[in-house]
Amino acid sequence: SQFADLSDAANRNHEALRLAKHEMNESRRQIQSLTCEVDGLKGMVRAGGDAWHGGGVRAQPSPQHSSLSRPPKTERGAAAADAGDGG
Hints:
Radius of gyration: 34 Å
Largest sheet: none
Oligomer: single chain
Helix content: over 70%
């Protein structure tokens, strides 16, 4: 009877191991699939980012609103210094 019990336990463990291997292989397939999808999306983002930043899509002030844009920091500092002199 001990042999039968051990044999049953070995069969259960063998089945559990088989299921675990199957789940592990399925997880590997999912990881590979998701990795490919992420790589594809990264490529799309890179391509979209290049188009966004280099294709003139970037928001820039229009000519009629150019007076609303501030001068660079160095010019503002010089203008503020000139105004402070009472000039």
